[in-house]
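Researcher: Here's a chain I'd like modeled. Treat it as a single chain, no partners, no ligands.
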Amino acid sequence: MNSNPLTRVWFTPTRGASNWLWLSFFVVILDQATKALVIGMVKLQDTIELLPILDIVYLENTGAAFSILAQAGGWQRWFFIILGLVVSIVLMVWLRRIRAEQILLAVGLSLVLGGALGNVIDRVMHGYVVDFIYFHWRQHYFPAFNVADTAISIGAGFLLLDAFRESGSKKEVIRDSRIAREK
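Model: Modeled as a single isolated chain. Structure tokens:
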């Protein structure tokens, strides 16, 4: 066995499902580009109506989802940066360890990773996350969000689909083994 450390590359396109990292990179680029566009074209807290149910609004969110901890005094910036980086490392390790055939899981992890890194970049660069997508129906408003948040939500959906699919496969294996024992 070759003991040269240069031959042991941690991430390669053929290592686990690491070949899905391009999706994370794409999410980060799209997220940062859209946020830069909003910062450059929309004044803080101004609203631009795109559709009767969709506005673009420039908001600075120092908290987490739904502005949780937004008024916490500043410590939350570093907490969310560290949390985002730890989660990103865990997701990269997870991507490396899964089988390349586990596409739903790989796509879900990659989307969550890209979203997490997109929001970490905001917190490092600005001290807050730029939110700008604002859905509403009449007088009912959903909290503003961004491309990174969308990727995290869609990625979580893929992770749930994968978990349900895996759960169904395991139940089928258990059922088949019970049937085999009864024969």
